Amino acid sequence: TKKTPLNLSKFLNEYKFAMHDKRIIMCLESDASGKINSMWGDEKAYMNEAANSFLLTLFSGKNSIGLYSGFELGQNRAKWIELNNNFAKNEEKRYYESKKITKEAYFEAKKYQSKENMEVIMSWNNTDFCGFSDYNMWKFSPALNYYTNNVKTEQNDPNSCLNFYIFLTNFIKDKTYLDSLDKSSTSIKKINDILFIKRKYNKQTLKFIYNLTNKPRKLFPQYGNYKLITSSYVSKIYASLPKYLEPFESIIIINDN
């Protein structure tokens, strides 16, 4: 009933299975898991940085990409979930109460785990109906952060999740990197809770380096001639490649030698 940190080893095992095949559509959210940005990201200080890092993981493999209900906007869980006056949920609640789990603990867990989180409406703007005119849209909840993370607001913000998604879409189509993304050998490892994915083809090497935790992590880099392509901290200015990754800071670097 408590939120637990992302299990990076389990995540990596699932990720390695899916990332090597274009026939596999990789999604990071589902009715079973809820919204990853709320479950294992951050709803406050590092909201967009966490969303960008999870978004970036979809682009470092050969897999196809699937997006659910505003994932490219960094949408969080549903603003409201109907937990009362629902027969199935009442039965479920009574079952857990019989296992000594309180009603309060049940409600708190369902805020994050309920499939309603995957039914949040797409936030086109920050009006009451998120850009929809039909009053029946009240049957569906907006995302918790719809007021800031919506298409109208984000398309005009160069540092937004939406524009980071657009950058990544253009990045994987860029002829400069195309062979390294399509024809490369791939290696994956985890060191100090940081994930490293290396894509190498001929003389070009791309590295995707992820901190998917809410704590700074020390790097032990041997960068050589690597240069930065992008970061989940979109507005951050890098004088050099970092020795630490801040919470949910993830980067792509390249070596053309």
How would you describe what is shown here?
The protein has 257 residues and is of the alpha+beta class. Helices cover 27% and strands 16% of the residues. The chain contains eight helices and nine strands. It has helices spanning 8-18, 36-39, 47-57, 87-98, 103-113, 151-155, 161-171, 178-182; strands at 25-26, 64-65, 185-191, 194-201, 204-210, 217-218, 227-231, 244-245, 250-255. The strands form three sheets. The protein has a five-stranded antiparallel beta sheet. The chain has a two-stranded parallel sheet with strand order 1-2. It is globular. The N and C termini lie far apart (50 Å). The model has no long low-confidence stretch (mean pLDDT 88).
Order of helices and strands: HEHHEHHHHHEEEEEEE
Helicity range of the residues? 25-40%
Poorly predicted segments: none
Q: Measure the end-to-end span.
A: 50 Å
What can be said about the biggest beta sheet?
A: 5 strands, antiparallel
Overall geometric form: globular
Residue share in β-strands = 15-25%
Q: Please identify the structural class as seen in this structure.
A: alpha+beta
Average pLDDT value?
A: 88
* Strand element count: 9
Any descriptors?
27% helix, alpha+beta, single chain, 257 residues, 5-stranded antiparallel beta sheet
Helix-strand blueprint:
Blueprint: H1 8-18, E1 25-26, H2 36-39, H3 47-57, E2 64-65, H4 87-98, H5 103-113, H6 151-155, H7 161-171, H8 178-182, E3 185-191, E4 194-201, E5 204-210, E6 217-218, E7 227-231, E8 244-245, E9 250-255
Parallel strand pairs: 1-2
Antiparallel strand pairs: 3-4, 4-5, 5-9, 6-8, 7-9
Helix pairs in contact: 3-7
